[in-house]
Structures are given as C-alpha cells and as structure tokens.
C-alpha cells in the first residue's frame, strides 16, 4: 500500500530514464521534469551534481504522461497535469491530473522499496510542474522521505493540501529555490508556497537566484551541498 491519502487510480506505470552512480545503489533520487520536457531533460544534471564522497545513487527521471494542455490551445505534450489558468496560481492545476501524478510517483517510490531502497533513503525532486507534484506528494507522505527538492515551483491545490497534510510530512527536509525574474511561476508564488509549508512545520532551505524560469550552476551547487547533508545525516 502506498503512503498517499489519494484514492486516485494508478495509471499505467511511468517510463523512466535511470542512471546509477555505483553498484547496488543505497539511495534513490527521483527527479520530475517540467511541462513539455521529459526525463532526458534533467538527466544531464547528474555529472554536474554528484560528489565523489557520496554513496552509490540511482537517479530516476520519469517521463510525464502525454496529455492535452488547456493554456497551450489543447496541444498534447508531456505534463503532470493540465494547466487551465496561467494567471491564477490557486486554480492553475487540474486536481484530477495532480492526483493521478501523485499516485504514479508513489508507485515509483514503492518500486524503489522493492529494489532495496526504502522511503527513508529516497529524495523526491522536481522542477516547475514536477516540483509542484513533488510538494503535493510530499505533503501526503505518512512515511517521510529523506528529503524534498522543489525548484521554480508553487504549491498546487494549496488550501486542500495544507488541510490534508500528513502529520509526519513536515519531518522531511525541504530545499526550495526560485528565480527572482521568473515569468512562468512568479517568484511570489514560490514565496507563498514556502510560507504555507512553514506553517506546517517544514524546515525549508530557501534560495533565490537572479534568473528566469530555469536552473543555474549556483543552484545546482546548493542542491549538491544540501544532498551532502542528507547523506551525512543518515
């Protein structure tokens, strides 16, 4: 049984790109891409991110399902959920799509347990839409993950997720970062998400960078330093 409270049916298993940094990985980093991207889009981060003193890791980069996206005139692309309203963050996410994607992510976490990596050694990361799903899944976790990484994102279904958050969810360390010039997910959206999560007791390592809707080298270095702390604390 997965640890999400959602009753959404699990759709077909997600296809993934996987990279292992050593034999018999003891940890898994599950990384969710943004709208219109794919698992391949973030796979190149591995050599930039990994440090020599880290344990063997399995990076899992799933591909989001292909679905119609309302704000793109119904064009079909990889998306974790439909985006119905670009301007209104509170109503941007299609709740059914969020629920489905959370269930699919939970299935991947359960698969890692079957491969010898328990939830306590799984890091769930995501960028933009992927970060929104990482936060949604993290708030539902009754068995905490080793940590959450949410980059250039916001909290979808915020009122509902805060209301339904699992009591143990705030035990998960959380890294958040956002570009101060982000035109896609406004910087204020990231700040608001962090503020809501702090009310639940989350300890957030927050970073701001002078960039748009993207990642930068300084951000990746900060993520690496934060991950080093997680591995050292285990």
UniProtKB/TrEMBL annotation:
Protein keywords: Hydrolase
Pfam families: Abhydrolase_2
InterPro entries: AB_hydrolase_fold, LYPA1-2/EST-like, PLipase/COase/thioEstase
Superkingdom assignment: Bacteria
UniProt keyword Hydrolase present: yes
Record-linked SUPFAM superfamilies: alpha/beta-Hydrolases
GO molecular function annotations of the record: hydrolase activity
Keyword Hydrolase in annotation: yes
Family stated for the protein in its record: Belongs to the AB hydrolase superfamily. AB hydrolase 2 family.
PANTHER family given in the database record: LYSOPHOSPHOLIPASE-LIKE PROTEIN 1, LYSOPHOSPHOLIPASE-RELATED
Name under which the protein is recorded: Phospholipase/carboxylesterase
Organism the protein comes from: Lysobacter enzymogenes
């Amino acid at each position: 049984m997965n640890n999400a409270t959602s009753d959404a049916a699990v759709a077909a298993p997600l296809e993934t790109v996987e990279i292992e940094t050593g034999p018999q990985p003891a940890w898994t980093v599950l990384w969710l891409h943004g709208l219109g991207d794919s698992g391949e889009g973030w796979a190149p981060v591995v050599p930039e991110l990994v440090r020599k003193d880290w344990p063997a890791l399995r990076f899992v980069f799933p591909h989001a399902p292909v679905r119609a996206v309302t704000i793109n005139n119904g064009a079909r692309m990889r998306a974790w959920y439909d985006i119905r309203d670009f301007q209104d963050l509170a109503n941007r996410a299609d709740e059914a799509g969020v629920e489905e994607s959370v269930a699919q992510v939970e299935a991947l976490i359960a698969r890692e347990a079957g491969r010898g990596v328990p939830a306590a050694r799984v890091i769930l990361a995501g960028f933009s839409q992927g970060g929104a799903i990482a936060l949604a899944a993290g708030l539902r976790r009754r068995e905490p993950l080793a940590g959450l990484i949410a980059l250039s994102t916001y909290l979808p279904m915020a009122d509902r997720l805060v209301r339904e958050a699992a009591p143990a969810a705030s035990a998960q360390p959380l890294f958040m970062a956002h570009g101060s010039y982000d035109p896609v997910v406004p910087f204020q959206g990231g700040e608001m998400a962090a503020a809501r999560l702090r009310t639940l007791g989350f300890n957030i390592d927050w970073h701001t960078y002078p960039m748009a809707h993207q990642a930068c080298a300084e951000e990746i270095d900060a993520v690496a330093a934060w991950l080093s702390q997680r591995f050292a604390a285990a």
